[in-house]
Amino acid sequence: MKIEVNLSKSNQTKKINLRKNSEVFDLLKKLDIKPHTAVVLRNKIPIPEDEQLKENDILHILQVSSSG
Question: Tell me, what's the pLDDT at 28?
Fold first, then answer.
């Protein structure tokens, strides 16, 4: 399955191939992004890590950071 991902941190758009029934967690793992450091949006709405992705989804990944 193919999806499009817009990465806010690097201002890049990537087309990613994932296996059918992949979830947000699988996408983040493939992109080497730790789930607790990112918010994934579909249609400007945050979606959880266990959300199943769909063919031709267009997602935005906002990577967040904090300092202590």
Answer: 97
**Ranges of H-type helices in 1-68:** 24-30
> Is CATH 3.10.20.30 correct for 2-63?
yes
pTM of the model: 0.89
What is the domain partition of the chain in residue ranges? 2-63
Dump pLDDT digits (tens) for 23-48: 999 999 999 999 999 999 999 999 99
27 torsion bin: left (phi>0), alpha (psi -120 to 50), beta (else): alpha
| 51 DSSP assignment | P
